[in-house]
Amino acid sequence: MTYSIIGRDDRAIGCAVQSQAFNCGAAVPWVRAGVGAVATQSFTDRRYGYRGLELLAAGRSPQDALDALLSGDAMPQFRQVAFMSLDGRAAQWTGESCVNACGHVAGDGWAAQGNMLVADAWRAMGAAFEQAEGSLAGRLMAALEAAEETGGDFRGRGGCAIVVAPLEGEPWERIVDLRVEEGDTSLVELRRLLERAEAYRSAGAAPARENGMPDHEIQWRTMLDAAEAGDFSKARAALAELEKLHPYWRDLARSASTRPDAPAHLRDIVE
User: Fold this and answer.
1) Is residue 262 a contact partner of residue 254, using CB atoms and an 8 Å limit?
2) For the segment 11-51, what is each residue's pLDDT rounded down to a tens digit?
3) For residues 70 and 80, what is the distance between their CA atoms, to the nearest angstrom?
4) Among 12, 101, 128, 214, which residue has the least CB neighbours within 10 Å?
5) How far is CA 156 from each of CA 22, 144, 246, rounded to the nearest angstrom?
6) DSSP conformation letters of 87-125
7) Residue in 191, 161, 166 with CA at minimum distance from that of residue 178
8) Cα 148 to Cα 157: distance, rounded to the nearest angstrom
């Protein structure tokens, strides 16, 4: 009832999923910075995600971790699971009682799997991931869209999610953590959210404007860009536009100017 893909590049590791099932983003993808990723689906048992990451963190290989959890499972024949370590090693399992079409396949830096599908979407995901360019999250998104083009879940569309974490970092760190709980247009909405998330992560007013972000976000970034460049007139004009929206914007700018990473001239503008 689900298709998913785990992928990595030289900076990050992540997992993306789509299913007719509601809230699949809370159950299927498990990603931890500095550890690896797990996808657990088909009569989903979340223990594979939580305990799987614990085993990877303890130094177990993906195959060892998967085998350990399967050996203690009363219903392994119903499970579909994938593990990936930070170096791209993968281990996968599709139980014999998973509903057709079902299967899995792995390649260089990715592992794709699916069950209860119209066709073998897992192969389409792998090909799309390899061919896509850009951020890891964008490549995972392209893989989901390719799977849906094959027909996806035979019951229809539902929830979807993308979770990406840095290869190195604290357990709570995320680069992208997005999900849509349900809907026939869930993948379209996830694409929109991903583009918006990547625009928020980028610096500067131009990406904000190009991605249709709120006017206050555009003005705020315009002020910061101008302050960094020493263009006091432009920065003050942008702050004045913000103050038309609410006078507290100056207080926020003043507070931001005290941060260690504040633009060099921001304090001169807000005082």
Assistant:
1) no
2) 999 999 999 889 999 999 999 999 999 999 999 999 999 99
3) 10
4) 214
5) 12, 14, 45
6) TS-EEEEE-TTSPSS-EEEEETTEEEEEESBSS-HHHHH
7) 161
8) 9
CB contact at 8 A, 113 and 3: yes
Other CB atoms closer than 10 Å to residue 192's CB: what's the count?
A: 15
What are the tens digits of pLDDT across the range 80-139?
Answer: 999 999 999 999 999 999 999 999 999 999 999 999 998 899 999 999 999 999 999 999
The structure's pTM equals 0.89
pLDDT score of 172: 95
Q: Report the C-alpha gap between 53 and 63 in whole angstroms.
A: 12
| Buried b or exposed e, range 74-100, using 16+ CB within 10 angstroms | eebebbbbbbbbbebebbbbbbeebee
Say what the pLDDT of residue 1 is: 65
Structure tokens at 100: 């057709």
Q: Tell me the CA end-to-end span of the chain in Å, nearest whole number.
A: 58
Q: Per residue in 145-184, pLDDT tens?
A: 999 999 877 777 889 999 999 999 999 999 999 999 999 8
C-alpha angle with apex 18: 39 to 95, nearest 5 degrees? 45
